[in-house]
Structure to design on (510 residues):
């Protein structure tokens, strides 16, 4: 099967606890790394509150725009876990108890002597037509419906679900990156870097100042899926930085 | 001056380096804490790439919807720093060199013996009609135009700019929170917690499982701007949790 040139994705992080600052998100970074490894271009992230309409709007806006949508959070057993409800609403489908999800949960509950109750059975409600995403950590499954992949918010469960998903996703052309370190400020390399960016439109060049170090440092990051072109552009950027170091009379940083 | 009932905000994090996973964002958490401290309800966060149209769309969607919009990232001297351009475009105004911003930068450059060049002067381009946000760390200012507050992406600079902004923002009614710790699973408290949430619609109740600890733990977080109501609801939740501990025969956790 041939890969389309670009496979894109968006992430929706669901939860008041992120927006209040009570919980510091780590799922954005994990999803970004996961996508980069698979050659999927993560184009956008939204963090939304535990409000049905906000989740529905984000799911519908993003699933129309990108190859894949991932969501994290809001699939537990309590009243504030409304992601399944919202995704079912976004797709206009029912949200019945799924027998396979119920069996997965009951098997785990039997092992651990956990009481089956209405709150826990909320976690077996899966939108009609969805496939389950296995949860190797705590049994309660995520699910995929259309191009939307619904995962837990707890980071270790979310990462286990991403791993379970990986074989089902189509990767794109892997984007490679090279970093050139400069011991001068961004403003010194900014002009010539812009000129090199114009010369190599298919190599994306970024400039990142490093604050709080002993001396001024700038990291120039080049990204492209064309390795030969990337090497050529990196050599040009390195030569430009070498010249800037010589002009400023500074020692080049270790690469 | 009387405060409106709810002051809302959105944050736009701008930068390919967040979406590629190369840089792990910490500005979302810092902005969330900042808003919570001021009684501002952070309703939504978007992370977008270094593409003008994506930034313009996010700025225009969110500034119409919330009291305040904050942005971080993309105000440095290099070609990939396009936030000022995008915000000027979103507001339909010009982006000239701002004399006050230029003076701030030149004063710093004089101190540090830094060459003035075209790349560095990009940082003095400020949308027409905007006010500057002082940058005590590295001089290059942010700016406020309408309800949109444009800040640096480097975390220490971003936090300095938030501090500079604080006196200019109108805070809302401060939201207080109480946490009740339970040594039983979410599924055990889920049903009665949902019933208590229905009884106290003005106290927002959240349930957060704590994974990876020695034993099952759930934190129940109650939030409200009405302190008396919050105390009353917290006492009810605590009594419900005490009963669950007694039924399960487990030792209550230390609060």
């Amino acid at each position: 099967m041939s890969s389309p040139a670009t496979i894109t994705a968006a992430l929706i992080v669901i939860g008041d606890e992120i927006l209040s600052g009570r919980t510091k998100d780590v799922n954005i970074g994990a999803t970004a790394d996961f996508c980069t490894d698979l050659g999927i271009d993560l184009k956008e992230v939204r963090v939304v509150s535990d409000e049905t309409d906000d989740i529905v709007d984000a799911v519908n806006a993003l699933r129309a725009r990108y190859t894949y949508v991932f969501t994290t959070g809001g699939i537990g057993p309590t009243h504030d876990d409304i992601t399944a409800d919202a995704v079912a609403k976004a797709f206009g489908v029912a949200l019945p108890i799924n027998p396979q999800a119920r069996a997965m949960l009951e098997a785990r509950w039997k092992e651990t002597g956990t009481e089956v109750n209405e709150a826990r059975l909320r976690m077996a409600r899966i939108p009609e037509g969805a496939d389950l995403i296995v949860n190797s950590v705590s049994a309660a499954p995520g699910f995929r419906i259309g191009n939307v992949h619904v995962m837990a918010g707890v980071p270790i469960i979310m990462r286990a679900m991403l791993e379970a998903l990986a074989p089902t996703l189509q990767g794109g052309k892997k984007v490679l990156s090279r970093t050139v370190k400069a011991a001068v400020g961004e403003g010194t390399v900014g002009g010539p870097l812009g000129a090199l960016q114009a010369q190599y439109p298919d190599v994306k060049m970024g400039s990142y100042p490093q604050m709080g170090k002993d001396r001024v440092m700038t990291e120039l990051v080049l990204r492209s899926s064309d390795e030969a072109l990337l090497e050529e552009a990196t050599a040009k950027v390195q030569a430009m930085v070498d010249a800037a170091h010589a002009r400023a009379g500074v020692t080049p940083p270790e690469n």
